[in-house]
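User: Design a sequence. Structure:
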């Protein structure tokens, strides 16, 4: 049963703020902690892209560029989240491309 929870918490880590479930429920499990960190970094990167697009919305440059940034950022988030979920489902601790080297949770 513990391995099922490990897999569940690891998968939930890549679905937005649901990383908190694994962080609170199984914080001492190294596999869960790895995936929670990856999910948190992914969420923060997506939020940074969203805030950057929001700032560009304020500038008088039109809406095309901010909307493209949001659209591309959303697709990248989705691709990386699916990749992370597949890794978590397979029990693999593989860093996500571009952002996986960042460690926020020790």
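Assistant: Done.
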């Amino acid at each position: 049963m513990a391995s099922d929870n490990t897999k569940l918490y690891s998968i939930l880590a890549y679905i937005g703020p649901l990383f908190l479930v694994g962080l609170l429920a199984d914080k001492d499990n190294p596999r869960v902690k790895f995936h929670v960190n990856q999910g948190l970094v992914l969420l923060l990167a997506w939020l940074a892209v969203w805030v950057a697009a929001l700032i560009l919305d304020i500038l008088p440059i039109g809406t095309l560029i901010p909307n493209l940034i949001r659209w591309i950022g959303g697709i990248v988030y989705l691709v990386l989240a699916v990749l992370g979920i597949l890794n978590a489902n397979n029990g693999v601790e593989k860093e996500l491309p571009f952002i996986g080297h960042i460690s926020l949770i020790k």
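The two ends are 25 Å apart (CA to CA). The helical segments are 2-12, 19-25, 30-58, 64-89.
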